[in-house]
Fold each of these.
Amino acid sequence: MLYMLRLFIVNLGIHLAVLFLGLFLVIFFTKNGAALDEVEKYKYLFLVSGLVVFIERLIYYIKYYKFHILPYSLKLFNRVNNEQKESKIYLDKFKIYDKKSNTYFFKNRLSIDKKAYIDLKDRIIHLLGYEDKNEVEFEIKAHNKKEVAIKLFKLPKKFDWHIGLLKDKNIYLGHNKDGSYYLPLENLTSSICCGESGSGKSNFLNMIIFSLLQNSQYIEHLDFIDLKGVELSRYELNNTTFTDNIEEANNLFENLKNEMNNRFKEMKEKKDLTYNGNFRICLIDEIGTISTHFDKKLKENIFNNLIEIGQKGRASKVLLLIFSQKIDSTNIPTNVLTNLQGSFLLRTSSQFNINNSIGLNEEVEEITRTRVQDFPKGRVIFKDGLSSEKVLLQTPFLSQDVQNSMIKYFQNWINK
Ligand SMILES: Nc1ncnc2c1ncn2[C@@H]1O[C@H](COP(=O)(O)OP(=O)(O)OP(=O)(O)O)[C@@H](O)[C@H]1O
């Protein structure tokens, strides 16, 4: 309490000093250098404006009391060590609340320790008065050198799909802290999606396909490969092909590689940096089934082609979207994985999956309070293949009926 009072008095003092000096200068100059007794005539103006500032500051401190007291309560400070004197402590301070983005900024005159905020996030949430820990999500970002930005937001755990989420030239990836999140089709890269059984992978896969189909005019062909299921065979569209046969898949990759190289030739002739035509996109569900196949030579050929497509595909608009429960080297060779630029991570208890798709735990903790193994169904972290930005998303639920009616919708439109 004493700390708050001190903070308030210092802050009020600064504001009043600036106000009075400003008023004095205005009067002084408008009255062509009036004497002090001239200024005295305006004492009521000083009094009223001083009172207004006092009330405004008081309301501000009462309103953001919890945020002002937070660095003090949680001992968020930085210190300088001087050889002669004792070390000096600089406490972090609440700077401002940005209403538009619902973000709170804290600053420190020396430099700020973002990790301390990440480590204390549960206590911060508690201190701010959110009793139910699951009620609110927490994102923390470094802002300038000496500030951290804390954004509190809510993500629904479950919501329904509707066709209005589809958008021309964009892929809808779910809802993030600001609402619907779209990846421009132009920025799509070859990507890996991993999540354990029941995490909502198939649901997510179908949702991505809807966005791709909505953008059919920019996509030459979509190839679906699933060696263990028939879910993707339901689409039966003029611009899609499905295979559950490994030899056919091998031929397809050979084909895609040739197509990619032809596109490169054309680009070279035209001196284009990116291919000036439509995308070829291949979706592979459960890539692990290829790794377990007995024919070593066939597997090797497939994986070599996947590596090449992953490496060079983006400029020529030939892309791979690979889905897998696990991404260790027994499921997907490391060379294939490292050449997929983007990643999507759903619920998993495997630290290997997390590290090799998104990165360190600390990076995950910056954007969510929920551990990846506790993610609800359909919760995804997307790592952008171009910018490496990480985004926390919740994907809508697609019931069987919704999936069937969407497939019918695309059949009526594309197969016409
Ligand atoms: N976004 C979502 N929101 C709510 N519930 C979901 C969501 N996605 C999936 N579910 C629920 O989770 C169940 C499993 O989803 P899904 O089949 O997509 O998971 P999966 O990871 O593909 O599992 P598997 O690998 O075993 O097929 C679904 O039947 C559905 O009820």
Note: The chain has 14 helices and 16 strands.
Amino acid sequence: MNEPIIKFDNVVKRFGDITVLDSLNFQVQKGEKVTIIGPSGSGKSTVLRILMTLEAINEGIIHVAGKPLWHEYKDDRLVPASEGHLREMRKEMGMVFQQFNLFPHMTVRRNVTEAPVQVLGLSKAEANQRAEEYLDLVGLSDQADKFPRQLSGGQQQRVGIARALAMRPNIMLFDEPTSSLDPELVGEVLTVIQRLAEEHDLTMLLVTHEMQFAKQISDRVCFFDKGKIVEEGPPEILYTSPKEERTREFLKNFINQE
Ligand SMILES: Nc1ncnc2c1ncn2[C@@H]1O[C@H](COP(=O)(O)OP(=O)(O)OP(=O)(O)O)[C@@H](O)[C@H]1O
């Protein structure tokens, strides 16, 4: 097997007295689509936030694209990562948030061009061209001059996806991208994510409670509980014949979605 694009080795994350990730070992291969499922508070979002460098780790080591994420080499010694190293590493990843996190005072176009201009140093014209490309991909070319508040939740989330893609990351992280949407708006966002999964060579790591959707797009589903992977496998196997009691209990609640 090739070197994984994401590799967690014995990663520990604590918030005060709570251990959220408990010596986690976890890998994702390049191009793989992986979904993390599990009960509330099991540490799913924390995995994504750590990758996006929004939360630091307490112990262990993470590699992304072969390089340490939260550490860097200085004279052959591994030391905590500098802000410069984190900034470089962040370019590998794009993240789509549960609450969209769009800039409310910027137009849709500006939301998408801001980071390519500020972080990657693209010219305005280049960034606008990119924005056009990715807004088209999410079906929102005609909304570029609007502000987020003028859009539906589903449209805002699609802007969030275009914004992340405009940085041309190798890895896309989706943190419960549909859970703050009204039910009738969930489908349009899932359709866009599914198209991305099918047509692009992206590595995708998704946290969701949409079990049926996870089944459709994932090569592998990981069931998390108490900061560890309890069980993992291709969805058609994990869903139908889970080995662990905890996985069975969890999946039972979703069986009526099947
Ligand atoms: N910044 C923080 N400060 C303190 N505790 C936190 C912080 N972020 C997360 N936690 C705690 O860490 C635990 C795991 O949170 P996380 O959001 O990763 O869970 P989750 O599995 O994604 O849950 P959910 O499905 O409800 O989103 C929870 O107990 C949460 O309260």
Note: Residues 15, 18, 20, 38, 40-46 surround adenosine-5'-triphosphate (CB under 6 Å).
Amino acid sequence: MTKLSVNINKIATLRNSRGGQVPNVLKVASDIEAFGAQGITIHPRPDERHIRYQDARDLKNIVTTEFNIEGNPIPKFIDLVLETMPTQVTLVPDAIDAVTSNAGWDTVSNKDFLKDVIATFKQNGIRTSIFVDPDLKMIEGAALTGTDRIELYTESYADSYAAGNLEGVKSFTEAAKLAHHLELGINAGHDLSLDNIEYFKNNIPHLEEVSIGHALICESLYLGLENVVNMYLNKLK
Ligand SMILES: CC(=O)[C@@H](O)[C@H](O)COP(=O)(O)O
Ligand SMILES: NCC(=O)COP(=O)(O)O
């Protein structure tokens, strides 16, 4: 079984569009857990355009499943993670003005930086994951940072699957095999959807967790959040 962690950034986007508390991010997170999801993911960005730092603090008291906080480990992000003590922190090399995450780490040139940050989180009992492209050199580099897991950056898979090219999953299969051999846990995320998740899951050995936000919330507009969460859970069995 692969765990589903639902990214609720888009719920915060909707809330922020009007001010106030509708939809209520905390209630939605609790409901998603009640619907069966095994985790909640947030990715606060420095401009707090969707999830706010205060949301992370509030969610800490609400989330009873796995709590995963993603972001670029700038000093204020590191402080937030150490304050909120999530189950897992996922480090992502976001540019400050990125619309969304658009690259994995260069684990070779950032090895010393990543080693330091990862050691800090692990000393505090927080599981670590780092966002990487399906590039074998980057997977080898990830293993040298001491991280517990990697998160495979799946946008290229999603694009190739949508274009009808099933070969696009191959580099991810090879990356997962190597990561497992190097004793890294394997997560994945970005642009995964009801359309493409099953083929991905069936082709990625040892896939422990996927984090899914944008597509899942869009699909819920038509199908309802509870239905959609359960549709993913069925595909991830
Ligand atoms: C790392 C990753 O792929 C996701 O966290 C994604 O970037 C969500 O962030 P946005 O909701 O800001 O697009
Ligand atoms: N780590 C990926 C994530 O949390 C969600 O990404 P997306 O489904 O919003 O593309």
Note: The pocket of 1-deoxy-D-xylulose-5-phosphate (ligand 1) is lined by residues 7, 9, 43, 45, 70, 92, 100-101, 131, 189-190, 213 (CB under 6 Å).
Amino acid sequence: MREHRESGAGSGKGRPDAPGRKDKRMPGGADRTGSKRVRAAAAPRANGRDGAVRIADAAADELRPGDRIVVTIKRIGINGEGVGYYKRKAVFVPGALPGEVVKAAVTGVEPNRLTARIAEIEKRSSHRVKPVCPVYDRCGGCQLQHMDYAGQLAAKEELVREAFARYAGLEGAELPLRPIIGMDEPWRYRNKAQLQAGHKPGGGLALGLYEPGSRRLVDIAGCAVQHPAVSAAAERIRRLAERAGVPVGAGPDGALRTVVLRVAPESGELQLTLVASAEQFPGRDRLVEAIRRELPQIISISVNVNRGSSPLVFGERTRLLWGKPDLETRLGDLRFKLSPRAFFQLNPEQTVKLYDLAREAAALTGRETVVDAYCGTGTIALWLAPHAREVRGIETIREAVDDAERNARLNGRTNARFYVGRAEELLPRWVKQGFRPDVIVVDPPRTGCDAALLRTVADVKPARFVYVSCNPATLAKDCRVLLDAGYRIEWVQPVDMFPQTSHVESVTLLVR
Ligand SMILES: C[S@@+](CC[C@H](N)C(=O)[O-])C[C@H]1O[C@@H](n2cnc3c(N)ncnc32)[C@H](O)[C@@H]1O
């Protein structure tokens, strides 16, 4: 059997990887070059144990699905796949780990990358472990359970390092990267679950997540990253809904679509939101009655109406059915009241570390004016407010601003104000009016900061710019803009907010 090697042996001496070579291939898979490799490809794939092995040597852009290549995995990609190279083209291999050598079957050939699945692991990583969760390979919620936690932390640090090298041009000692902050117990940290309601294959009601790219529901009753109070309540609600005869899906007469549960870890109290295609649906009141009787830890039950076909969980209308309108929870010294749709960080233990880092970076003395752009429900602003003269939060979602104002009152903060609008519009307007913040904190969505916001920062030149980010690539790109505008990176601190997944959060301090 011949396989394609990423370099060296079998790299195809005398087989130019010249552009245009691919063009010689005819539709339907034939190739006018008549090379042995291609003939082998066109022949029935019966020479491998799984009957799908094409064995020859090829330039990266001549590979086809089913071809086997041998790849050394160099790092973890942003979606948790192993990334290696085949003749200088990136190969994404789900499930493969850094340091492993895998024989992989090509599944996709794109202009800039290949995708492949593991056929055999030739050299195993010492970080490879058996995933804890029985539905790990189907659920899609976690991407790194097959790697031990030390390996995950190292891989995430590398993701940040790689992003800064690629997008900000900072390599090695040029990047003041601190060691990632992980969790002592990297399980059961999620304070909220959004579970789709559907049918089990053999009948009965299921609550779970859809398999990525499919409509098959994976029952995740014993989710290993979910707070146990949420998992236990979800299973009881599933049974009670079944007993109450609640229809599931998006039926015209009303049916349960999604069950949203959020826990306040310090009290164990739970907030339940039943997302349904109509406010009233068969069995709803029986279900609410049963939950009140059997699950006293649920202190708030609402229905949210979502008739839409988009993947958004919530619709516009929410009505309280029973109990308190909000769930009260704490972060550090602060209290927060969360309405059913309010955004709140999912890992409270790590959130405290993240916000403490933002406070460290802001280095407040009590005299500063601070902007918390992309402020959500105002949590960072409220974390900083006791140490600043004034904090202004900016957020596009009206309800989030209402929550932020309410939480400011709840915590007796009179120096934090919140504004509905786009950060890239409001901040320049304030600056025109003479406003000069000493510190700007941003915590944008994955797409990063708007260019207009970065231009304003470059003009206003706050002494400290604190960038909280959930996406190393956009973080590094935005930092490049600020480096070119005269800022310098003091430190970058990755924080593992989502163990077992490939996500990595970080706080970066830029100064001038
Ligand atoms: C990553 S969340 C920040 C959450 C918050 N800092 C926290 O820790 O809970 C990003 C927030 O930015 C808001 N947002 C998105 N685009 C925005 C814009 N152009 N201007 C202001 N806020 C925006 C989103 O609605 C979202 O609440």
Note: The chain has three domains: 4-123, 192-327, 347-511.
